[in-house]
Design goal:
Length: about 425
């Protein structure tokens, strides 16, 4: 009988979110009348903006007309969208990126998960700890991670990010080949300053590494010192691939559109003494396994760059930022230490009174019917923290704050 790929056996089912769901379900059984509020959601709650909806309607109608109908599209995305991305996301910020270095897709998850396929099996992977699990799991499936020992994969280089190092990863003892950086960060909501990121770009240039830079939360950046693109930094085009998404920028989590930037300067070894252009290989990979993001979705993404679209999506983001500000202020007033939230929809909250991540999760669930995400679920260095998000509705955010105040009054923390 044919055998399953053994790497798939190595990967546990998503333990963290399954465990949370199970605990929430048990709580519901015991307290059927409780109104649970989730501060754990990583999905948006506001609907698509009118500019996007109008563009979708128009594109759907086009698909019903013989003269406007579109079948398979270009593998890297339609020119109308790639040109807008070049213009608004790069040129407007003084960055010179050519449309043929931009590859439109159905999501940053697939892109960051798939990109590792381009590198040799022996490549050493470095990830921050805590980490967005896709970076690790996709390399486990590719057979690069080794064995899991005491919660960590033997061949993966972990870069701890904690309050002690200001959430800025130090250079590791063992030099990796692929370095995943996520800024603004999921789960910590923290960012890398221009100086810190330049340090990593210089490190990658010196050591022949590639940085896989995930900026899915770029739209949430408010501070000037946080780079919007890694290409703002000197030499980054030689060593960095950038991932962006319309999911959190414009509420496309259900519609699905994202893009990868692979500059032509970005070259890697062919293993025989020569160098190859990474962009060409990404196109090769995509044209082999993927037939492109739907036309109507790309039209919807293009609409986010219109005057109305920009105003409307920024308004939505401001709503989430407002939630983050209220949550952050309230938690700090209760004496909790809070990181992130300023340039990201995530707040990374230090658990009080020496509790651990799960202990605090239980307390919030059982005493306030609130759901958060235990930080330890994102990696060992996440122990002692929980993640809260600002993606809920304003009313739920306010109610959650009220409940936490009541807990504090009751002396819980
Ligand atoms: N990258 C990070 C860091 C994320 O947190 C997420 C989604 O939560 C993604 C990528 C996935 O984005 P998309 O919806 O475009 O697949």
């Amino acid at each position: 009988m044919i055998s399953i790929n053994p790497n798939y056996l190595k990967l546990e089912a998503n333990y963290l979110f399954a465990e949370i769901e199970r605990k929430v379900a048990d709580f519901k059984d015991s307290q059927p009348d409780a109104r649970i509020i989730s501060l754990g959601i990583g999905d948006v709650s506001r609907p698509l903006v009118p500019a996007v909806i109008n563009a979708l309607h128009k594109a759907v109608d086009e698909m019903g007309h013989p003269e406007h109908f579109r079948g398979y599209g270009p593998y890297g995305g339609y020119a109308f969208l790639r040109d807008l991305i070049m213009e608004y996301d790069y040129k407007a910020h003084g960055i010179d990126i050519h449309p043929d270095e931009i590859f439109v897709s159905d999501g940053a998850k697939s892109d960051v998960g798939n990109f590792q396929e381009l590198f040799s099996q022996k490549s050493i992977v470095a990830v921050t700890d805590p980490v967005y699990p896709v970076y690790v799991d996709s390399n486990v499936l590719a057979g690069r991670a080794g064995e899991k020992v005491d919660g960590r994969w033997s061949n993966i280089v972990y870069l701890p990010c904690t309050a002690e190092n200001d959430f800025i990863p130090a250079f590791p003892d063992k030099t990796p080949d692929m370095i995943y950086l996520c800024c603004p960060n999921n789960p910590t909501g923290t960012t890398l300053s221009r100086k810190a990121l330049q340090g990593w770009v210089d490190y990658a240039r010196k050591n022949g590494c590639i940085i896989l830079f995930d900026s899915a939360y770029e739209a949430f950046i408010r501070d000037d010192d946080v780079p919007h693109s890694i290409y703002e930094l000197e030499g980054a085009k030689e060593v960095a691939v950038e991932f962006r998404s319309f999911s959190k920028t414009a509420g496309f989590t259900g519609l699905r559109c994202a893009y990868v930037v692979v500059p032509h300067e970005c070259k890697v070894s062919d293993g025989k003494g020569g160098k190859v252009d990474l962009a060409g290989f990404w196109l090769r990979r995509q044209s082999t396994k993927y037939n492109g993001c739907p036309y109507i979705v790309q039209r919807a993404a293009a609409a986010t760059y219109s005057e109305d679209g920009q105003r409307e999506i920024k308004d939505v983001i401001r709503g989430y930022q407002n939630n983050a500000d209220l949550l952050s202020k309230a938690l700090q007033e209760l004496g909790l230490t809070v990181y992130g939230g300023r340039n990201a929809p995530y707040l990374w909250v230090k658990v009080p009174n020496g509790m651990d991540s799960w202990g605090f999760f239980h307390k919030l669930l059982h005493e306030a019917a609130l759901v958060c995400t235990p930080g330890v679920g994102f990696g060992k260095s996440g122990e002692g923290y929980v993640r809260m998000t600002s993606f809920g509705s304003p009313d739920d955010t306010q109610d959650a704050i009220k409940r936490m105040r009541q807990l504090a009054v009751a002396g819980t923390f």
